[in-house]
From TrEMBL:
Keywords: Signal
Cited InterPro entries: DUF1223, Thioredoxin-like_sf
Protein name: DUF1223 domain-containing protein
Keyword field contains Transport: no
Range of residues in the leader sequence: 1-23
Organism annotation: Poritiphilus flavus
Classification via PANTHER family: LIPOPROTEIN LIPID ATTACHMENT SITE-LIKE PROTEIN, PUTATIVE (DUF1223)-RELATED, PTHR36057
Pfam families, per database record: DUF1223
Amino acid sequence: MKRTIVFTIVLVALITVAFTSISADKTEAVSDNDRIEGSYEPIVVLELFTSQGCSSCPSADALLKRVKQEGNDRVFTLSYHVDYWNYIGWEDPFSKPRFAKKQGIYNHKFRNRSNYTPQLVVNGMEHFVGSNSSRMNAALKDYGKKKAANKISLSHINAEKRKVKLNYEVLGDTTDKMLRILLVLDERTTHIKRGENRNRTLTNSNIVVGEQFAELTDSSGSITMPVPDLVKPGEKLELIVLVESDTYDITAAAKSELKG
């Protein structure tokens, strides 16, 4: 009887030790994962879908410009000019059909019925009317506290002969993620002759004039992209590189000033 009791005690002890060991392994695994996912400096990427042909857009353009002028290095401002207002009579020189398609992909993700302007998308995760300053301030505050899942560093940036060359390195899990490389025109003033904004002079800023994608097959590499003819010699450009997931969440961002 005593042997049976001793055997039972020993068996229970062994099971307890094994269970404790498994639990510790799981805790350690979670901790390792936490160090990879959500362990880098917060970023706030603001993508405004806008148009020179939209009478509601200038106020959103001005709000995004103000955010940029506040000078937070962790905030990235982008204006995508869509083409579906061009039919009114004024063809926005910065508009591209693929930008409207990009907006449609976001709205499909958000289960939003259709595209609209001005629409502001934050880190690829939520959207609101781009002229809504209270929502903008809340987004800057909220996303400014959330750790990013990745970190990207840029080096050996060279802009000459209408080409931009750069090296990059991405930290964190890059599974099912891509690079989005952007050339952003700082500012351009245009006199609008037709459409909803006819006879107005608009100053647009943060204008996406070049965009290309690259698969993250390796955590580091180099990229070359052309400077569009739309950019005039001497105009101020910004290089912005994003990391985005296969669900279009933006998980890292970096930027550098250039000269066109």
